[in-house]
Amino acid sequence: MDPSLEKLLTASVHSRKFITVLTGAGVSAESGIPTFRGPEGYWTVGSEAYQPQEMATRRMFLKQPYEVWKWYLYRRSVCAAAEPNPGHQALAEMERLFGDRFHLITQNVDNLHIRAGSSPERTFQIHGNVFRMRCAEECSQRLVPVPPDLDDWVRDRDLTPAETALLRCPECGGLARPHVLWFDEVYDEPFYRLTSTLEVARKTDLLIVAGTSGMTNLPNKVAWEVSRRHGAVIVDINIDVNPFAALAVRDGGFAVKDTCSRVLPEILSVFQDA
Ligand code: OAD
After folding, report:
1. Residue range 238-249: average pLDDT?
2. Per-residue model confidence (pLDDT) at position 39
3. Distance between Cα 215 and ligand 1 center (Å)
4. Is pLDDT above 90 for 46?
């Protein structure tokens, strides 16, 4: 590790800095979950009948709810078959080390941070969680697990009538939807913790950005909030160029061009030895 980065990380521990980690699909790539925009990405490889990005819209859900559901059931099965990797584990350990000085903001809907031991309270799943569903009509804000009878979904398999009957809101009996943010929707506090995320950004001294291409709105706002804060530093970890790397370097931070599963445990070990 670059000695200047090591010095910064050590100093962050000693001066009781407020640390936030922002993660994207790159953290879970090494668990075998495709990213969105890579060569095998979810937005790159289409399904049989639809363009991939159409699937992630409320518009499509209203037209073809079970087409959208079967795509999310397939993605949920990919996530269920994956295991957290050393990157996820290092972040769970950082939370244990720093307690209330630590937050994790994740765009990943795969639940791997929680499975690695990060707490739901301090892990802001700003794009939702593919293992949960909620009322499509918003009769309540209750999140419920997607029924286990729909496990092990094979891509493009159609739902039977008995299976569609499982995808109902337990409160009103109406259609349930996946608990994920779609392209034609906006971030909010009740489901995606918009306000809390921005509050965390405003008090962050050290932001570690791991494995994201920076193509969505709230993660960019988080980085800009931190960048505006006097004395705050950004460290970007990514195998490729991305907008956060440039922002980090511009403001005196670091861009580490390497994998999350290698760099996050290294950072943890500097924190532990500080
Ligand atoms: P992307 O697929 O856009 O970007 C993944 C990033 O991870 C890229 O910058 C890769 O270079 C990097 N990467 C891949 N493997 C890596 C590794 N092993 N170590 C480090 N970096 C690695 O995924 P996201 O940025 O997460 O939103 O996408 C953000 C959001 O866009 C997603 O949450 C999703 C999508 O539309 C919604 O569905 C609302």
Report:
1. 95
2. 73
3. 8
4. no
